[in-house]
Design brief:
Blueprint (H helix, E strand, L loop, with lengths): L1 E4 L7 H13 L1 E3 L5 E4 L4 E2 L10 H6 L5 E7 L9 E3 L2 E2 H18 L3 E7 L4 H21 L8 H26 L7 H7 L6 H12 L6 E4 L8 E4 L1
Parallel strand pairs: 1-4, 1-5, 5-8
Antiparallel strand pairs: 2-3, 6-7, 9-10
């Protein structure tokens, strides 16, 4: 799903919908615990400026998406500003929206347009309510639970594990000051042989921040670098 709101004041709406749709619908299992790997990838920003970064592919590349345009009828405070040929900046923005719709339709790309009178707390609330209900309905149709996030929890648990490993790395290095160890050697000493890559990344991060007192002894191969506590 590609979202193109034609209003600067809706620039963050794409990010909101990324969270709503991808967190709610991105599920491995359905409600009967069957593997279904469901989800809708959402990207976009705002038209017309940001559409130039991907309209070329949408029109001529893979046809594996649909576009949701958000059209705002009121031009706002600059509605009386004539640019040229009796056309305002709002007229040009509206022309870009209609022109982009037509350019995509010519190549049989699917789109839907949501029209709003203006951008106000009420209309933004209506848009949020619309998509929340659409997501809930869609989840029911494909038989998944839109209201739990096991993937999000997995990321949080993995982050906690990284912090625990970092604590063990610092404890080991501080007990063996002035001695240099590779990530593989550290992993073996703290009994985390399956976390060598994570330990390497941790050591690289620590050694890039002088206040952490971890020094890197670089070698010809980055992965053979040695680390010490000073």
């Amino acid at each position: 799903m590609v979202l193109l709101p034609y209003s600067d004041r809706l620039a963050l709406f794409s990010k909101y919908l990324q969270q709503l749709l991808m967190e709610s619908l991105g599920k491995e299992l359905d409600s009967n615990s069957r593997i279904v790997n469901q989800g809708i990838t959402v990207f976009g920003n705002k038209g017309s400026s940001d559409q130039h970064s991907y309209i070329q592919q949408l029109r001529d590349g893979m046809n594996n998406f649909f576009v949701t345009f958000i059209e705002v009828m009121s031009d706002g405070i600059n509605s009386d500003s004539i640019m040229e040929s009796f056309a305002t900046s709002g007229d040009y923005l509206h022309g870009f929206l209609l022109g982009t719709c037509q350019a995509l339709a010519e190549k049989h790309r699917e789109s839907v347009t949501i029209s709003s009178k203006d951008v106000s707390p009420f209309t933004v609330g209506v848009l949020i309510a619309l998509f929340e209900r659409a997501v809930g309905l869609y989840a029911q149709l494909i038989n998944i639970n839109a209201y739990h996030q096991p993937g999000v929890e997995a990321g949080k648990k993995a982050a906690n594990n990284v912090i625990a490993i970092q604590r063990d790395v610092l404890r080991f290095l501080s007990k063996n000051q002035q001695q240099h160890f590779t990530a593989t050697e550290i992993a073996k000493e703290i009994k985390a042989d399956d976390e060598v890559e994570t330990i390497f990344k941790i050591c690289e991060h620590l050694s890039s921040n002088p206040a952490r007192n971890v020094k890197k002894l670089a070698t010809e191969s980055p992965f053979a670098s040695r680390y010490s506590f000073t």
